[in-house]
Amino acid sequence: AVINQLDAGDFHRPALLIERMLWNPRFKGVLGTRLGGHVGTEIRWEPARQNRAGRRAVEAIKEDWPLMASTPARKQLAKWGLLLGVGLAQRVPMESPTGRLLPKVQSYWPGWASWLATTRKYSITTDMGRTVEVGSPALGATIDAAVSSWIVSEPFGTYGWREAYVHAAWRAWFGHDTAFRDQARKSEKDGVGRVKALYPRGASDKDKTAQTRWLAGVNGATAGSGSTIPCELDEQGKKRFDIEPFEFGMSGSAAISDAINTAGTLLSILFLGHNLTTEVKGGS
Length: 284
Description:
Helix content is 44%, strand content 17%. It is α+β, with helices and mostly antiparallel strands. The chain has a three-stranded antiparallel β-sheet. A three-stranded antiparallel β-sheet has the order 3-4-5, with no helix packed on it. Strands 7-8 form a two-stranded parallel sheet. Helix 3 runs parallel beside helix 9. The longest helix has 26 residues, at 166-191. The protein starts with a helix and ends in a 12-residue tail after the last helix.
């Protein structure tokens, strides 16, 4: 349902879903690698003409660029552009330490935006509760910096939210999350110590007090997170009531681990183009 909302141009719940997906360590790790490579690319500045003014401008932009477009701001734009298909930011005026007036890029949460099919523009709710409409650069709209402070990143072009990575990532993330939960549950179930206490048939009818004291002693010896399971014996001392673990044909642990590894590999291939180098599977 959330993905259908994204396809319709409603970004609120899809943005919340993406933030929930980032709780997953595997998802956050491969995304971090992807974004780190993106913002870590060297940016070179060269003067248009080899003259003194051009060289001064290059030195100035080298000094001002980290203030104008910080690494966290560029990561935010790249993250939302990749996962949601649309990244939003604003130019906020600031003064550099040298006194120059600079436009600082400040990322904006895209969950407060939606696409208006009637006007073919983005409708953005601002911090003051007002609604502004911003055109799509991929559709040819020009955002005049003298009138609007908005920056729109559309890495997939027109109607890019329909090609956002969340479409391909959400199922693998959900499978990884639920399999990881199942593994923790199975570990907890198998890790709880249990003691089987055998007693003769009819003992409870003959001497209930003695049996109560006996079970109390057994429980005391296995105190903590463990448990005691009374099992009655027949006249020949054979088991009448017993318990045994139940597993499906494939080992439960192996099935869960296989689900975790499969989902994790899918996420790695989606964001990095290959499985992780730490996965020894004959190549990465």
